[in-house]
Design a protein that fits this description.
With 851 residues, this protein is an alpha+beta fold. The protein contains 26 helices and 20 strands. Strands 3, 4, 5, 6, 7, 8 and 9 form a seven-stranded mixed β-sheet that branches.
Length: 851
């Protein structure tokens, strides 16, 4: 082994702490950078792999009158369409009259395959398989009897539970969708033999395209491809609706026509009194109307994004991807900066050694190679360890934290692009730093290099000029403050390191607090109602009010008109906008607080123009005084003036007064919704109220703000584990950085510390000589970190915001306390380690002349 190579290994052996610190800092930086960057793709790829393996349909369509073989044949005309007809209905059943999605079991079907968690699929007519949620959340067990209500329309009312299963239709275990029976909220799904469904025709078509299965299900390419296929399917199936209606009405019309003919004959012959004929005539008219309503065929189209929880999962992975674009980059920059400083100081410390090699006749390249290999070894080792651990472990940990979703097939492909980028920055921070400093050192002569570097000349600092303050400081305090400003680069690096660690920890807590704050602000400061009741028609408002008033929790309600619209401005468009018109403008502020910086008269709707919510205003790039276009669901399009922008955190809403609505759209608003204020309710009371309203026949559905709050809290819960990982790794990085910088400080000043020890300073005083500076820099770093953490949280939450949700930047005091406490704890640990090291200083070796 060559002497220079031996020297390199000796260097590593003699300074294990520094070498390990460099490797650890690089490893942590690469781990978080690669791991978090890989987490988003891993979530999407794993879900995509899971639903693809289970043959989840790309599109499913439901019909109010069912599907015939002619309908199936029509859909098959779309190129590549694989179509299956499914028996499906909503029913009420179980111990507490739960709303259930019931599917007919058909072994010939290949799409939407069930994953049996326990038990087996139905083998006999009296057997049923339930959603695994029925087992975990509602405590059903194998062998129990499950009973449906009489209105379910199944051939039997009672079935034996023989299995529990997961379905790719329900990716999210916390959501099962809504229905028009029971209380309107589906609790779980059930599977019975197809013949037990009591249906003459299939009610659902599931459609899958083989060409789409190689596309990632959450990618834009997949969504665009599905949108094209969906448009083709709608064109193909549109004529079938009229044919289906005609086929259903033909026999009924024939029967009613016969009865009509008999009535006419009776009227002509006088065989029946005129009053009886009139009554029969009105009955026939009523039957025709009912028959026409029953035969009216409408289709409900669903892509994967419309399935319960599917889009929420995609948005959750997008939030992690958004966080990955900021948090790990900042983390890695801190790691790289500290590594750069460490390598620079290491090479500067070895200047006498470089001079010796140069005097012995070694070439510049031979000398430089010694330090470049040292840096390369540390950089490569840290990068490889960080990349392996980050790409394999972190995505798997994140996936394991998503317990609200069905078990996923883990896919954690290596993100080679991200790994190469991390390797490039790691080598720049290590090899680049070494090359830069070695080049500068080699430009000097051997005699200059072998002599110690001349110390910096002392200058008066600002504090010395404040005489009353300076005179009150002790000698040790004066020395510490002088040293702080004497070595400005060291002070700057330490403050940056501490500030970066504080900011990262604070950001971790800030992400969690900001997401939690969304639901709190929306449903305590903006929305002051607990339920939204959708009426079938304006005429049913009195009957619905009577039903609600029978419940003890009812306080009051506001009648409003709600319509869905598309809003556009500046070539931007927002869909699924709720156009809300209160019947009583005066009392509306008791239900929705209309506040905001751009609201002219706070608490009231504008008499000229519209009020829109803040997220929509941002997406459309409009403010007070601008104009935008509203297109109602019926197709009416009007250009309106923005009179103000109201504070809002969830969903998009446009508010108008009745007079503004009438003058804008030339029609009266249809009051079809109640905003209901309720006293605190139990889950059973919520369910009973929704059930009673549906049974009244005047209500289409009821939704509770508590359920929406729960959805947002679930969103926060899915990130809690990820945030905990961020905080943990940020803490480890902060500790390593603080230890490394303190270690460098001690190494550079070993002669100075030995000198004061020889002069009679006690061990505690020698330690405080260093630690006092660290305390000041730590406190400064923490304060700077507060500001950096707030800015970093602000940027991340802006990137992580969804199309419907704003995350207000919120960091509660526990976040500040944790960040401060951890930094002070790390400083105390480093102080203890430093104290032990300084007690064992070799004063004679340190003070021996190097000349």
């Amino acid at each position: 082994m060559k002497p220079l190579t031996k020297n390199m290994w000796r260097e590593i052996g003699q300074s294990k702490g520094r070498f390990i610190a460099i490797v650890l800092i690089i490893m942590l930086g690469v781990l978080i950078f690669v791991g978090v960057k890989a987490a988003g793709p891993a979530l999407n790829d794993s879900a995509s792999k899971t639903v693809t393996d289970a043959h989840l349909s790309d599109v499913q369509v439901l019909s109010t009158t069912g599907f015939t073989q002619q309908d199936v044949a029509a859909v098959k005309q779309v190129p590549g369409a694989q179509v299956e007809a499914v028996n499906f209905k909503y029913a009420v059943g179980g111990k507490t009259d739960d709303t259930v999605a019931v599917y007919g079991d058909d072994r010939t079907l290949s799409q939407n395959q069930l994953t049996i968690v326990s038990g087996h699929r139905p083998r006999h007519a009296n057997e049923i398989v339930l959603d695994n949620q029925a087992k975990t959340q509602y405590h059903y067990r194998l062998g129990q009897l499950y009973r449906f209500s009489r209105e379910a329309g199944l051939k039997q009312r009672q079935y034996k539970i023989v299995g529990f299963a997961n379905s790719p239709r329900y990716l999210d275990n916390t959501q099962r969708g809504s229905a028009n029976v029971g209380d309107g909220t589906v609790r779980y799904f059930a599977v019975v033999p197809k013949q037990q469904m009591g249906l003459k025709v299939a009610t659902m078509l599931t459609i899958r395209f083989k060409a789409l299965q190689n596309k990632q299900t959450f990618s834009r390419a997949y969504r665009h491809a599905v949108a094209d296929k969906l448009a083709a399917l709608k064109r193909q199936l549109a004529p079938q609706a009229k044919r289906r209606e005609t086929a259903l009405l033909r026999p009924i019309e024939a029967r009613l026509n016969q009865m009509q003919a008999k009535l006419k004959a009776a009227a002509v012959t006088g065989a029946m009194p005129a009053s009886v004929i009139a009554r029969q005539q009105s009955r026939l008219a009523a039957q025709r109307k009912v028959a026409k309503a029953k035969a009216t065929t409408t289709y409900t189209w669903q892509t994967r994004d419309d399935l319960p929880g599917f889009q929420a999962y995609g948005e959750s992975s997008e939030r992690i991807a958004a966080i990955a674009n900021v948090f790990p980059v900042f983390f890695f920059l801190i790691a790289a900066l500290i590594t750069f400083t460490t390598i620079t100081r290491m090479v500067e410390e070895a200047r006498s050694q470089i001079g010796t090699f140069k005097a012995l006749g070694y070439t510049r390249w031979a000398i430089a190679r010694n330090y470049l290999l040292y840096a390369l070894t540390a950089g490569v080792l840290g990068t490889v360890l960080g990349a392996m651990m980050g790409n394999i472990t972190l995505p798997r940990i994140v996936l394991s934290l998503y317990k609200m979703y069905i078990p996923l097939t883990v896919v954690d492909d290596f993100q080679w692009g991200v790994i190469l980028l991390a390797a490039l920055f790691s080598l720049l921070a290590t090899v680049g730093a070494a090359a830069l400093v070695v080049r500068r050192q080699l430009s000097e002569g051997p005699a200059t290099l072998m002599r110690p570097k001349a110390p910096k000349s002392a200058n008066r600092i600002l504090m010395e000029r404040i005489t009353p303050l300076w005179q009150r400081l002790s000698f040790n305090q004066k020395v510490s403050y002088r040293n702080l400003f004497r070595f400005k680069s060291r002070m700057l690096m330490t403050i940056i390191g501490i500030a970066g660690g504080t900011a990262l920890i604070l950001t971790g807590f800030g992400i969690r607090d900001s997401i939690n704050a969304t639901s709190h602000l929306q449903y305590s400061r903006v929305s002051h109602y607990q339920a939204v009741v959708r009426l079938n028609s304006e005429a049913g408002s009195k009957a619905a009010t009577k039903t609600i008033a029978q419940h003890a929790q009812y306080k009051r309600r506001a009648l409003v008109a709600m319509d869905t619209a598309k809003v556009s401005a500046h070539q931007q468009q927002v869909t699924d906008v709720s156009v809300t018109v209160p019947k009583s403008v005066r009392s509306f502020n008791d239900y929705v607080k209309l506040t905001g910086r751009n609201v002219a008269n706070r608490g009231t709707l504008p008499t000229n123009g519209v009020l829109l919510t803040s997220k929509m205003a941002k997406l459309l790039r409009v403010s007070r005084g601008d104009h935008m276009t509203i297109r109602l669901a019926a197709g009416t399009t009007r250009r309106v003036r923005v009179a103000g922008v109201a504070e809002n955190y969830v969903a998009h809403t446009v508010y108008l007064t009745p007079s503004v609505f009438r003058s804008t759209f030339q029609q009266a608003p249809v009051y079809n919704t109640f905003l209901v204020q309720l006293r605190p309710q139990t889950a059973a009371q919520q369910k009973q109220l929704a059930n009673d309203l549906l049974k009244s026949g005047t209500v289409a559905g009821t939704s509770y703000t508590k359920d929406q709050e729960k959805t947002i809290q679930t969103m926060s819960a899915s990130l809690t584990g990820v945030v905990a990982i961020f905080v943990l790794l940020s803490g480890v990085l902060s500790f390593v950085v603080l230890y490394n910088l303190t270690n460098i400080n001690v190494s550079e000043r070993i002669r100075e510390l030995s000198t004061i020890k020889v002069l009679g300073f006690f061990d505690r005083e020698v330690t405080m000589y260093i630690v006092r500076e660290n305390v000041v820099m730590t406190l400064l770093g923490i304060v700077v970190g507060y500001g950096l953490g707030w800015l970093l949280t602000l940027y991340i939450m802006q990137q992580a915001a969804t199309a419907l949700v704003i995350f207000p930047v919120t960091i509660h005091w526990p976040g500040f306390a944790a960040a401060t406490g951890l930094m002070l704890l790390f400083a105390a640990v480093v102080m203890a380690v430093t104290h032990r090291r300084l007690k064992r200083i070799d004063m004679i070796g340190a003070l021996s002349a190097k000349e």
